[in-house]
Amino acid sequence: MATVKRRKRPGWIAEFGWRHLVAVAVLVFGLVPILYVVSAAFNPKGTLSATSLLPTDFSLVSFDRLFSDPNIPFASWFANSLMIAVPAAFISILISSLAAYAFSRFRFRGRRPMLLFLLLIQMFPAFLSVVALYLIFGAIGEFYPVAGLNTKLGLMLVYMGGALGVSTWLMKGFFDTIPKELDEAATIDGASHAQIFFGMILPLAAPIIAISGILAFVGTMNDFILASLFLTDRPEMTLAVGLKTLTADNSPASYFGIFAAGTLLTSILTVAVFMSLQRYIVSGLTGGAVKG
């Protein structure tokens, strides 16, 4: 009787070990910059040359100087970022949701070319439009200074327009998954389009609204190119632009620790926004579904 040779199973390293190695490499690649920033933020000397990967001393002097140094208006930068990011994200999500609802539920002439045009715009990076935006808002500022260059309203309008395309596409795809029978049932009961949208569609679309809101808010808070172009006065700068000035060639060497402390506080805000909206991302898909 011939013996059947059993196929030798691959070893643990060949089957699972390489995945752990890749995971560890990615983890190290992501944690090293974070550890370096944390070390610099709590370094009492606050200089780049005196900062190591693992902190040797612990001090809060950089955080104290961040709020007490008269040459560093961190509170104004923080307030400027919130004054721009929060309204820009809210208004862009509201307009995007209305546009996505129209593209998803209605059929009208030019619907498909408009969707393709929105997709085409997203293929080009934002910095390609820097020169055009500078000229446009420079001309607007001559007639309406409140919305021109070096104004929060002008930068807010730019951020709102930049987030409309991707948010509309994301929401339109999500709205297509919501059964149209819900709209028809509500229409039979006498509901208007506004009642259907605000009372039925938006509660069901809470996850995609949360995702779009996070993308718009974080993108606005972290933007440097457009903010440095529009806001040049030091008290009017956003966090990204203001903190960048702390690492300029003419800045004191001790400002690097203050820069690290500011970036650490900014990242905490971003993580807090994500964690506060996490429950809407994970759940809520069937929050307003019809029970049958």
From TrEMBL:
The protein, known as: Carbohydrate ABC transporter membrane protein 2 (CUT1 family)
Keywords: Cell membrane, Membrane, Sugar transport, Transmembrane, Transmembrane helix, Transport
Membrane topology per record: Multi-pass membrane protein
One Pfam family per UniProt: BPD_transp_1
Segments traversing the membrane: 21-42, 77-103, 115-137, 157-175, 196-218, 253-275
Family: Belongs to the binding-protein-dependent transport system permease family. MalFG subfamily.
Species of provenance: Glycomyces artemisiae
Database matches in CDD domains: TM_PBP2
Superkingdom of the organism of origin: Bacteria
Entries under Gene3D superfamilies matching the protein: MetI-like
Record has Membrane as a keyword: yes
Gene Ontology MF annotations: ABC-type maltose transporter activity
Gene Ontology biological-process entries: maltodextrin transmembrane transport
Keyword Protease: no
InterPro entries given in the database record: BP-dep_ABC_trans_perm (IPR050901), MetI-like (IPR000515), MetI-like_sf (IPR035906)
